[in-house]
Amino acid sequence: RLSHVLDYGVDEMIGGDRNHLWHHIKPHACFQTQEQMIIVSGKGLTVTDIRGREYLDATSGGVWCVNVGYGRDSIADAVAAQMKQMAYFAGSVGTIPSIKLSGKLLEMMTTMGKVYFSNSGSEANEKSYKIIRQASTIDPSRRGKYKILYRDRDYHGTTIAVLASSGQAERKKDFGPFPEGFVQIPHCLCYRCPFGRTYPDCDIQCARSVEDIILKEGPDSVGGLIVEPITAGGGIIIPVDEYFPILQEICSRYGVFLVIDEVVAGFGRTGKFFGYQHFDVDPDMVTLAKGMASAYEPVSATVVKQHIYDLFLNDPADPDRRMHFFRDISTYGGCAGVMAASLENIRIMEAEGLVENSRVMGDYLLGRLRELLALPVVGDVRGKGLFCGVELVTDRQGKAPPSEAQMAAVVDAVKARGVLLGRTNSSLPGLNTTLYYAPALVITREEVDRMVDATKKGIETVFG
Ligand code: PMP
After folding, report:
1. Which parts of the chain span the membrane according to its record (predicted)?
2. Which of 298, 319, 351 is the last residue of a domain?
């Protein structure tokens, strides 16, 4: 069982992990209390740690991105072949995979017109802000429309400007001051309605209130609105069907570009290729990353409608139109191997019917998770496709959250049963009280059952 790790020297690696590696988003003291898991291999949904323990991964790599599952030789082969032929040329020049991939993405998003590549979700979103801001200086009809609205509980990335547009206030802590021009709008989680209303009698106030905010800010100053179609890290928040059409109508009335952040929801995660395709909405821009190459390689894109691209032909400061362009660049936006990875990733999804499997297995997963509502600490179960959340509460009526220690204990108890579960927000800032399920889209019924059964036992271990 351990043969696959013997070459590494287990103690040496554990020491190196403790002494050299700065782990992302993990308390620095963690090594003092517990040996940390080191992952060495993966196949399908199963990962194996350095001690030879196997886990069923409900998180697609911790941050919902390994959509086609682990161990895909054909992606590695496609990347190797592309790198051997042509590894890189700057994004100011086309390469065979960048041309093919942009064409493929536009085939999948029929109302979009152009694709701009970069290499992380944060960057893809930042590009959309730069497009909105540059448009507000070069297009006389958009002059001064520099403000960007973002939603409470949504997250759009880690660098300072995209963090300025994070609705998760806890992530902003310690990093200010932030650039100005980012304005928060309410979230749309019915379970904890920000207006204290109840659907369907609420008149979808969360969406309608956006008009008041635009009027308060001044319509002449608001250029864009960014939203996750289904909020990921903010608590698996799924808007009601009426939400997006209302938002879209308000955006078009006030000339506000609607940007949909598909970094998590894209590429089959929610049972359609893109999350926004569940709703009656037609965004001006869509941003992609994570599942785009199932994180085998870092690749992202900002996909825009043709009218956005064409705005850059209207620069009055450049009447002879020789120098008009989006003044942005991204070195690794020209990496050819990552695009080969994405093309092969999309081919696999189509050939194996993984989006359909996400829908079918997602329905099954949601049904099984709803059985957990029989446990008094399960307050709400929500999901679309293979993207589900189970929000825990210590009292159903008041919806009081469990403690951090209790939540951590649940995840540990589930892990002890061989399943890696994630934890995320519940629309309550800073409290990770929603268990989430975002497994690879290749999941089987039997694997769904194992995840749910382990969760039930884990919850019962902690809460009785
Ligand atoms: N948008 C959303 C919805 C995300 O969840 C994330 C990351 N989890 C990002 C953007 C940022 O992506 P990245 O970490 O690749 O910069």
Report:
1. none
2. 351
Ligand 1 contact via 263 beta carbon (within 6 Å): yes
What ligand 1 atom has the least distance to the C-alpha of 290? 15
| CA-proximal residue: ligand 1, atom 8 (nearest) | 63
Domain assignment of residue 53, given as a range: 6-66+354-463
Q: Same domain, yes or no, for 328 and 406?
A: no
Q: Is the same domain home to 84 and 48?
A: no
Q: 385 CB less than 6 Å from ligand 1?
A: no
* CA dist., res. 56 & res. 420, Å (int): 6
| Domain end point (choices 332, 351, 370) | 351
What CA–CA distance (Å, rounded) separates 146 from 129? 9
The residue whose CA is least distant from atom 7 of ligand 1 is 157
Residues 311 and 364 in one domain: no
Q: How far, in Å, CA of 116 to CA of 127, rounded? A: 9
Residue 1 within a domain: no
> CA angle, 122 as apex, 118 and 126 as ends, to 5°?
80
121 in ligand 1 pocket by Cβ < 6 Å? yes
> Residues 123, 300: contact at Cβ < 8 Å?
yes
Strands 300-304 and 114-118: antiparallel
Q: Which residues of 155-166 are buried (b: 16+ CB within 10 A; e: fewer)?
A: bbbbeebbbbbb
Gap between the Cα atoms of 110 and 97, Å rounded: 20
Q: How many separate domains does the chain show?
A: 2
pLDDT along the chain (464 residues), means of 10: 61 90 90 90 97 97 98 98 97 97 98 98 98 92 96 97 95 95 97 97 98 98 98 96 98 98 98 98 98 98 96 72 82 96 98 98 98 97 98 94 95 98 84 95 98 98 94
Model confidence, pTM: 0.97
Query: Ligand 1 pocket, 155 CB below 6 A?
Result: yes
Q: Which is the closest atom of ligand 1 to the Cα of 122? A: 16
- In this structure, the answer to whether residues 259 and 358 fall within a common structural domain is no
Q: What is the CATH number of the domain that holds 112?
A: 3.40.640.10
Most informative mutation of 237, 263, 292 for ligand 1 (most atoms within 8 A of CB)? 263
Residue 124 C-alpha to ligand 1 middle, in angstroms? 9
DSSP 169-197: HHHHTTS-PPPS-EEEE----GGG-TT--
| Structural domain contains residue 392 | yes
Pair 18, 79 in one domain: no
